[in-house]
Please model this.
Amino acid sequence: MKANASTLGSAQIIDGKATALAIREELKVSAKRLTELGAKPGLAVVLVGEDPASQVYVRNKDRAAEAAGFDVHTIRLPEETTQAKLLAEIHSLNDNPDVHGILVQLPLPKGGDLNERETVRAISPDKDVDGLHPENVARLVMGERGFVPCTPAGCIELLDRYEIPIEGKHAVVIGRSMLVGKPIAQLLLARNATVSMCHSRTADLASMCRQADIIVAAVGVAGLVRGDWIQPGAAVLDVGINRGEDGKLCGDVVFDEVRQRAGALTPVPGGVGPMTIAMLLRNTAISAARAAGVEL
Ligand code: NAD
Model:
């Protein structure tokens, strides 16, 4: 799926939905092989409370994991769960050899004594398939084997599968969150891109973007990245998920403008979004393979 980076007015649309489906098919094969080796991948998803959006996310993750042939352990805890009870659940999952990946759906309910940082730290780094444990953050920065957060991993996978070169390129990352901006910057750096981190206090975002070969927009502001910010042929990954004025889902990028100049562009929906679950499953399969002492 080589991107055509030279034609103006016709960015290649990066199909994250199709790419994610292809990865999930590949993972079915891996899961079958691991199951034959006695290491069927097991994903534990912990959901505290009744938040409707979280319930949808958890259901989607469960279904995707089951469809790929993984074991799914869904732990639903009531809104009033205490931190001690939540930690006890996590410790028991850490000790369960059938569980290779543990995910606690965030945000946790407010009002009680639940503490997200402490909760993430309680997950064994070797089962932290969301890549949020400080140990995994450190491993990413140090170039050591660990788990990489799923959305940033999905961005790199899209660039690779569309054969968009990273090494030596100037990548501009907009957004500096722990979930997306910082890890994607580290991943691009590890692949020998020259990385500029931009954020809400960046003085002239437009001129930074005009120097970019790769732009990753991870902000959460609809209509932020305009067509005239784009160097002709640049690859643009739109991570943002927003509701436009028309009520429809949209990213951070003005799609119809940017596609006129970019070489490749992810749509919203159907771009980076579907890759997140695919990478969660891949991290879980990797964890199962490591536990079994085999290569995926
Ligand atoms: P966040 O709110 O934690 O971080 C947003 C970042 O954007 C901050 O670092 C801030 O400095 C920067 N920012 C804010 N306003 C800016 C501006 N005007 N110009 C430049 N930078 C600005 O958000 P997040 O968790 O990193 O998520 C970012 C977006 O990505 C959101 O829309 C979120 O819904 C989406 N997201 C999508 C996926 C997925 O596709 N699966 C996963 C995670 C997040």
Q: What stands out?
A: The chain has ten helices and eleven strands. Confidence is low (pLDDT under 50) at residues 3-7.
